[in-house]
Amino acid sequence: MGDAGGAVARFESPDGEARLTLARASFAGSGCSAAAAAAVKAASGAQLAAEGEFGMSAGGSSFAAGQGVTGAEGRKGAARYYCRGAQAVALEASASTESFLRWQGEMEGALDSLSYDGPENRVAIRRPVQAPPAYFVHVVRFRGQTLGRIVEWYTGEYENWRKVARVNEDLPVPNTDLKVGREIKIPAELLKRQDPLPEPRKRAAHSSPQPKTRGQAPSGQPPPPTQPSETAPLAPAEAEEQAAPLPPVIGPR
Fold it and tell me: Are 140 and 39 spatial neighbours (Cβ–Cβ below 8 Å)?
C-alpha cells in the first residue's frame, strides 16, 4: 500500500519500461470520461479514449465509471476510471507500444489488481482474481478412440483418466469406444503434448488356411520331380495288337 499524496502517484518497473499512473482531477458532476481524460493528460501526457462507461455502486451510493485506451508518443496503455463526488480518478497502465502489445493481458490484469481509497487517499494492491481453469479440448475424429487412450496420449499417464472424467459429463469407462464428434476437456496442467492423436490402426483380416491338394508343393518350394511309371512300355507289335479294334460280328451268334 502506498500514499497517493498529491495529484499523481506512479509505480514503475525496475527497468522503467512499464508504468502505473494514478491521476486525479476535479469533477463537476457530468462528463466523467472528459474529466478522467484531463486527469490522465495532466499526469502522464497521454490521451485517453474512452471505450465504455457504466454505473457502479459502493457505500450506498452510485457513480459513473469506465475504461479506455491511452496513447502517447511511443507508448500505449489501458486505463480504468471513475467519478465520485467532486473527484475523477483514473488509473493507467502503460509501456512502449511493442511491450504493451506483447503483454497487454498482464498490463490490464495489473489495473484490475489495484484499488484506490479516495477518503484515505491511498492506493492498495488487491490479490488478482483467479483465472478460470484452462482446458485443452480433444474432438474424437475416428472410431475406436477411448478415454484411456486419449488421456495417455496427451498426458503421458493412463491413470489420469479419472481426473479428466471429473471435468467432463457422462464419460464411459476408459476402455469403451467414444462416439465420433465427442469433445473431451483435458485440464491444461496435465498436458504433456498437444499434437493430434493418430487414427487407430485397422485390424488386418486373417484368411483361413486352404487345405493342400495331394502332391501340391508347399509355398516357396519347387514341385517334386515326376516319378517314372513302373509299367514297362509295350513293344510296337504288342501296341498295334492292343490298339487294333475287333472286327464286327456278322450273322447269328
Answer: no
C-alpha dihedral sign at 227, 229, 232, 234: negative
- DSSP conformation class of 146: B
DSSP letters for 157-222: -GGGHHHHHHTSSS---TTSBPPTT-EEEEEGGG-S--SPPPPPPPPPPPPPPPPPPTTPPPTTSP
User: What is the DSSP secondary-structure string of 99-145?
Assistant: HHHHSHHHHHHHHHTEEEETTTTEEEEPPPPPPPPPEEEEE--STT-
Separation of alpha carbons 140 and 155, rounded Å? 16
User: Is 86 in a helix, a strand, or coil?
Assistant: coil
What are the tens digits of pLDDT across the range 137-187? 999 999 999 999 999 999 999 999 999 999 998 887 899 999 999 999 999
Q: Report how far residue 76's alpha carbon sits from residue 74's, in angstroms, rounded to the nearest whole number.
A: 7
Nearest to 44 by CA among 18, 5, 83, 13: 18
Q: What is the DSSP letter of 224?
A: P
Give the C-alpha distances (Å, rounded to integers) separating 139 from 188, 193, 208. 16, 15, 38
Cell numbers that stand for 17 in this block: 519500461
Query: Residue 137 CA to chain centroid, in angstroms?
Result: 5
pTM for the complete prediction?
A: 0.45
Q: Which of 58-62, 117-121, 204-208, 233-237 has the highest mean pLDDT?
A: 58-62
Q: How many CB atoms lie within 10 A of CB 93?
A: 25
